[in-house]
Structure prediction request, 150 residues.
Amino acid sequence: MTDPIDPPQPPAQDQPAPVQPGAGRLDEPARQAFGRTAPDPGPGTGSDAVPASGAPAPGFDERGRVKSGRISAVWVGLIGTAVFVILLIVFIAQNSHKASLHFLGWHGQFSLALTILLSAVVGMVLVAIPGSVRIAQLRRALRKNGPGRS
Prediction:
């Protein structure tokens, strides 16, 4: 019984050897090491991000960068919130001793961290109320005088 796969035959003397794709070429790390090419800038930054037609490829903006979406914004927000909570825990742990408070005839002993956090929340509410009223005024004015209105 003979082997169904024939072994490769050496090329004839008068014919050039067939060239295999990629044969005799340096791979990417070797070309970079010998300075024959610039390092690959990474996905989404080369010519694959903006085709020859001029329109960006799906998922890329006009500059060839990956578009950011809602999920990435939520992820950044979650990371920021986690860092904030960790800093808040450290703040509370470092300021857990009692502080004496006196305000308009009222007095008491509270945790210093709780006192500072409560005053910060009250300050945010005092800023948010007039800001929200102003935003509502601007939206109402835009609806009244916006495009499409005479």
In short: The chain has three helices and two strands. The longest strand covers residues 98-103. The chain has two domains: 26-67, 70-145. Strands lie at 98-103, 106-111.
